[in-house]
Amino acid sequence: MLTQIAAAQLFAFLLIFCRVGMAMMLLPGFSESYVFARVRLALAAGMSILLAPVLTNIPHAPSHVSALFILIISEILTGLFLGGLSRILISAMHTAGAIIAYQSGLSASLTLGISQQGQDTALGNILSFTSVVLLFVMDLHHLMLRGLSDSYSLFIPGEFPSLGDFADHAAHMVNGAFHAAMQMSAPSLVVGTIMNLGAGILSRLMPNLQIFFIMISPQLVVSFLVLMVTFSSIMLWYMQYFQDTLATFLPPP
After folding, report:
1. How many C-beta neighbours within 10 Å does residue 43 have?
2. Is the dihedral angle over the CA atoms 107, 112, 113, 117 positive or is it negative?
3. What angle do CA 250, 30, 136 make, to 5 degrees?
C-alpha cells in the first residue's frame, strides 16, 4: 500500500514537472541567458514538489506506454504555451527598443542580447533588462507562478490541449505585443517624424546642403531627451499592461 502511494506521488511530481519545467524554461527572469540551467531546474523541481500534494486532479499513471507518451506531450505543450505567452509579452520591450533605435539612428549599435539569444539593439537591451528587473521588484513574478499553479484548473491534466486554440491565442498575443510596442515608442516616432519632415523640407530648399550628416547629432540628442522624459512612463505603463494581460488567465482571488 505504501509503495503504491509513493509511486502515485512520484508520478504526480514528474507529470507536474513536465509542465512547470517547460514553462520555467521560458518565463521572463527565470529563463534569461544569465540564469544557470541548474538554477532553473532546481526552481522547477521545487515548485513541482510544492504542487504535488495540493493538486487533486492529477490522473493516475496509464498502463500503456502510448497513453503515457501522449500525457507527457500534452503537459509539455501546455507548459510551452504558458511560458511562451509571458515571453511574447516581454518581446514587446525588444520591439519597442528596436523601433526607437531605428528612429533615432542607433540601429547599428547592436550588442549581445541580455535577455534573449542573439543580437539586440542597445536600447532594446536597456528596456528589456529594466522591465525584467521591475517584474521582480513589483512582485509580478508571483503572478506568473500563480498562473502556472492555477493553469491546472483551466488545462486539465490528461486532456490533450487544443493546438488550434493555442495558435490562435498566440497570434492575438503577438498582435497585442506589437501594438503595445508601437504605443511605447509613439513619442519617439512622433518627434522623429517631425524632425525628418523638417530635414526633408530643408533638403528641398537647399539641395547642396549635406542634411544627412548635419541631422545625425541633433537627431541623437533629441531622441535621448525624449527617451529620458518618457522612460519612467513607458516602464509604468508596460508593468500595468503585463499585469492586466496575465490577469486575464487567472481566476479572481
Report:
1. 17
2. positive
3. 65
Which triple of cell numbers denotes residue 204?
Answer: 528641398
Q: How many residues in the chain?
A: 253
What is the rounded end-to-end Cα distance, in angstroms, of the chain?
A: 37
Residue 112 binned pLDDT confidence (cut-offs 50, 70, 90):
low
In this structure, of 22-31, 84-93, 198-207, 243-252, the range with the lowest mean pLDDT score is 243-252
> Within a 13 Å sphere around the CA of 92, how many CA atoms are in the beta-carbon half?
28
The pLDDT, as a whole number, for residue 107 is 66
Domain boundaries, the chain: 2-247
Q: Which long-range contacts (CB under 8 A, 24 or more apart) does 43-51 make?
A: 44/17, 44/20, 45/17, 45/21, 47/20, 47/145, 47/148, 48/13, 48/16, 48/17, 48/20, 48/21, 49/13, 51/16, 51/20, 51/149, 51/152
Backbone φ and ψ of 111, nearest 5°: -130, 175
The average pLDDT across 41-56 equals 84
pTM of the model: 0.80
